[in-house]
Amino acid sequence: MASRRLLANALRFLSIDAVQKAKSGHPGMPMGMADIAEVLWNDFLKHNPKNPQWFNRDRFILSNGHGSMLLYSLLHLTGYDLSIEDLKNFRQLHSKTPGHPEVGITEGVEATTGPLGQGLSAATGMALAEKLLAQKYNRDDCAVVDHRTYCFVGDGCLMEGVSHEAASIAGLMGLNKLIVFWDDNGISIDGSVANWFADNTPKRFEAYGWKVITNVDGHDSGAVHAAIKQAHSCTDSPVLICCKTAIGFGSPNLKGSEKSHGAPLGDEEIQATRQNLDWEFKDFEIPEEVYSDWNAHSQGVEAEASWQKIWDKYQIDYPDLSAELKRRIDKKLPASWNDVIDDLLINTQEHLQAVATRKASQQVLNVLVDKLPELIGGSADLSHSNLTFANKSVSITPENMDGNYIHYGVREFGMAAIMNGFALHGGFIPYGGTFLVFADYARNAIRMSALMKQRVIYVLSHDSIGLGEDGPTHQPIEHLCMLRITPNVSVWRPCDATETVVAWKLAIERESGPTCLALSRQKLPAYKRSQDMLKNISRGGYIIQDCSSYPKAIIIATGSEVEIALAAADHLARDGMQIRVVSMPCPDLFLQQDAAYRAEVLPDTVQARVAVEAGVPDYWHQFVGGRGKVLGISSYGESAPGSDLYNYFGITKEQVINMVRQTITVNGD
């Protein structure tokens, strides 16, 4: 049987060789954390390489994702579908081993990491997901949800502000199955961190409510093993294991230096490292003895089979619970889903009422939270402003884990990143609220939702200058455009309660990425629609009001500006002009429609077009063309009542009328 150091050295040299071959990468962290990884994966991690998606597996998150070759080496050696050729193809186009770990690219990768701190935050979401599912579905004789979340972090992760947000929540919620390993090597890209990271990290985490195990020699396998055993005995808090390591461990000249952090070691230093660690094998060569000792197939199959017996009993003893849990794990909506939505739409159309779309959203949630147990809601300290708390919402607290709503506190970034963890874990559809303007705080986590193609729903209220007196710090101007141009983010800005119902429907049905719901603070009128109109809302853009003959001009609007567009069209119609009004609550979805439908709504022959939205105008030029006009706002807002601001910035019926007349004149009609 191979020694622990030999097993760890296999991780080191696969990482060293792959980085050297790619002429790019980060060898220092894999070299420094290899001993920790070897103990964790060989002695404790519950997983099955033959079935990477086995639900009750432990989750392993590499928050310091620049050290991706450590994870790829672990996956290769333990028997996942990642060959030595894949390792040789590290960082190359379309390889299974990209520069940072990516969900959906590499089998066994649980979260896309790289932006530091977000892996820790996602791990917090995963651990909280496990705890909530266990609370709801486990029974004394059948613990069908019972796994841990392990996370590696570096100094950079702990410097990032999002780590403070997530760690605070993890401590509050007592996530005892979350175990984090701090790679305390004292080095970041600029060198020794002593001059810019002098926090007392153990005390900081203790203050968050974590158990902290200090002074663990990260290169002593026995010490690491003992620390993990101690962490497993903790029943009421997450655990931080502080592992003192040397970046670039084994390199005679670069050990402990930032020079081993983000660049290949070089041929000479690699040879010196081989000699120093008694590694007598060639590039990418692993002896059969090492492969045999690392292979986790039999242990994985055995672990899953043991759980399967529990699951089989659970299905017999608790058929309703098991059916619901399986449905949630399989990401299937209830059989009654379409009926629920149809009833909502019918009720909304039969009881037309002027409400703010944030209120309309809450009315939808009042129904959906009761019908979809997988919905896990929350808000960043704005529950009563975002109106994300529904009639059947139950607050999750340290004393009550039998709930469905998280008060994230003033932690927008942490909330978004934790929701990514919920989505990645499975069994939940997370939604969380803040003001649209504070999407800036959550921006990179929203981007990660999109990159990972995760179903996360962002409820972003107070969507325009219409919020009024709070002024420019709270009035979003550029945010709709920013979100819309982010690949794979779907953005809805509904104009009334009916569009809000459809927005929620498609957000929940969309499994391939996040959805942002931009909702108004102020009341908006409700509109009666034909069946064709109702059907076409789900196409992202549709004719909400047409004219009696071929249109002379088209007005395109979203949200609160649809009311202005309709008023302008009515005025122009009284003057004998044929004006079509298009509501486009979700432009990205409209752009996905077939060319025939898009041409039906926006015919090329009608070039007199005006788009109106209380935000930066840039995005809308693609819809109005070179001969159309966009009415928007290109400056920051002001502090005043919302109606005054619409007049001040010229987002008015009169201005729309003027612009329509101008486009008709320019187009020679």
Summarize the structure.
By secondary structure, the protein is of the alpha/beta class. A hairpin with a 2-residue loop joins β4 (187-188) and β5.
Structure in words:
With 669 residues, the protein is an alpha/beta fold. It has 27 helices and 20 strands. The strands form 5 sheets. A 6-stranded parallel β-sheet has the order 10-9-11-12-14-13, with helices on both faces. Helix 20 (497-509) links the parallel strand 13 (490-492) and strand 14. The longest helix has 21 residues, at 297-317. The protein is elongated. The termini are far apart.
What is the number of E strands? 20
Main sheet characteristics: 6 strands, parallel
Multimeric status of the protein: single chain
Helix-and-strand structural type: alpha/beta
- List the uncertain runs: none
Radius of gyration: 28 Å
Helix coverage percent: 40-55%
Broad shape = elongated
Span between termini: 86 Å
Overall average residue pLDDT: 98
- Beta fraction: 5-15%
Number of helices: 27
Strand order across the largest sheet: 10-9-11-12-14-13
